[in-house]
Every structure is written in C-alpha cells, then in structure tokens.
Amino acid sequence: MTVLLDAYALIAYLRDEPAAPIVQRLLWDGQLAMSSVQLAEVVDRMERVYGVASDEIEVAVSALGIEVVVADYPVGAQAGRLRARHYSPTGRTLSLADSFCAATAVIGEMTMATADPILLTVAESEGCQILRLPGSA
After folding, report:
1. What is the set of domains in the chain, with CATH numbers?
2. pTM of the shown model
C-alpha cells in the first residue's frame, strides 16, 4: 500500500511535531509518495515560514526516499474538478495545492496521510483511504 503524504505530514516530520513518530514509522515501512505540488509547498513553507534554506530542505527530503509523483495532465484535470466541486459549494476552502494532493491520491489509489480537516473531508467524499495524523503543536 502506497501512502501519499500531504505537505503537513512531511513538515510535521521535519519539525518534530506530534505527527512525526507516525511519519517516521511510514518512512521505515517504505512505499511513501508525495505530489510534486506538495513538495513545492514543503520547500516554500520551510524556507518562508521557518527560515530553513531551501537547499537544506531538498537534501533532507531527497535522503528520505519518498517517491515524488509528477502532476501530469490527468492529475491536473482531476485537481481542477475536485477544487471546483469542493471549494465554493460546500463552504470549504480547499487550496489548489491540496486539490492536487487529493487528485494524486484518487488517481493513484493511494492512502492519504494528513491532519488537514478540509483535505480529510474531501478525500473521504472522493472515496480515498485516509490515515489521520495528529495536528501540529
């Protein structure tokens, strides 16, 4: 079973937040993936919010052996459909990045690991298997 990490999950691991032990176990078990869009979000957030140099983040992430799934045409189109369905009509604020995460999980039939309540709701409504992570500190 491949587990797809959202950006929160990897950031929680890198910052040793409450979800870190679960992500560590997933790393030991292997078969982890992350959308290239979520990787961009991790690099952005770690540098912009937490002040970690992007090259340090890239080295750390590449050493973890996480498969990075490229956001191709089918994933992009599915992400757009998901955001259109779940953004305004439901009152949720599904980010474009999270719509790519959900689309990657749907198309790849992966289990999604996240603590994001909006992303969890969308993933469940789309039939994804989910792994609920504890929220950040």
Report:
1. 3-132 (3.40.50.1010)
2. 0.90
